[in-house]
Amino acid sequence: MNLLPLPAFADNYIWMLHDAVDAVVVDPGDAAPVFEALGRTGLRLQAILVTHHHADHVGGVAALREATGAVVYGPARETIPEPAVRLAQGDAVTALGLRFEVFDVPGHTSGHIAYYCADLDAADGTEGGMARLGGTPALFCGDTLFSGGCGRLFEGTPAQMQASLDTLAALPGDTRVCCAHEYTLSNLRFACAVEPGNQALLHHLSDCESLRARGLPTLPSRMATERNINPFLRTRESAVAQAAQVVDARVNPADAVQVLAALRQWKNDFR
Ligand code: ZN
Ligand code: FE
């Protein structure tokens, strides 16, 4: 199975999975990069997975479905282009012979979902070419979890986002974290302000800076890395809780939700 990020707009990624015959895309905010990739490779688009309703994630859905007949899957509780198969926590999608579990991850939007595939090479008869991923899991988390950060709370509460991030952080450490935006460097600069003494974070920042200097994506990240460097997955760490209390003295450092709320506000104002 092959996994690749198709760049779209200024900093979106449309994730494409394919087995050299059929393809799946996640959050095609723009149809053009997907048509370009399908045309270049001769792949057939089998399914479109949507995480949430924002235009930069659904803008290309209708054109792609009309041109390819791909089945569209999306969140049960949001307005997205119809027709679509609606999904919520506990549901699963089968595409490319792979099973994608659905998690409800509200916070960025109130009905946001994520898709988790426990084994990218589980499908029968698929011999991927480049970027063969030998059985590792993958998570398509839209705008809920970013490398080094999390989505803005447009519709949900800090408590919802904390619970959503707890769900995702519990996935296996080798999970490929396929986020929908290349926000990594600005997130990591903020993370360094929160945890200046985190050596894993400093190391990861320098790795990501060199990737970006070469024009390469910093994604997918790995869940084990995120647990070590992402302040929004570290709201129970004393260094993170204390930093949140410094910017907002009302924060109870023993309350992860209050810490997350203070971090998110701090990040919104951070330059
Ligand atoms: Zn969004
Ligand atoms: Fe987005």
Q: How would you characterize this protein structure?
A:
34% of the residues lie in helices and 24% in strands. It has helices at 32-41, 55-58, 61-68, 158-169, 184-194, 199-213, 223-229, 238-247, 256-269, and strands at residues 2-8, 12-18, 22-26, 44-49, 71-75, 85-87, 92-95, 98-104, 113-117, 138-142, 145-146, 149-150, 176-179, 221-222. The chain is globular, with a radius of gyration of 18 Å. Zinc ion is lined by residues 52, 54, 108, 143. Zinc ion binds next to loops.
Question: What's the arrangement of secondary structure elements?
Answer:
Elements: E1 2-8, E2 12-18, E3 22-26, H1 32-41, E4 44-49, H2 55-58, H3 61-68, E5 71-75, E6 85-87, E7 92-95, E8 98-104, E9 113-117, E10 138-142, E11 145-146, E12 149-150, H4 158-169, E13 176-179, H5 184-194, H6 199-213, E14 221-222, H7 223-229, H8 238-247, H9 256-269
Parallel strand pairs: 3-4, 4-5, 5-6, 10-13
Antiparallel strand pairs: 1-2, 2-3, 7-8, 8-9, 9-10, 11-12, 13-14
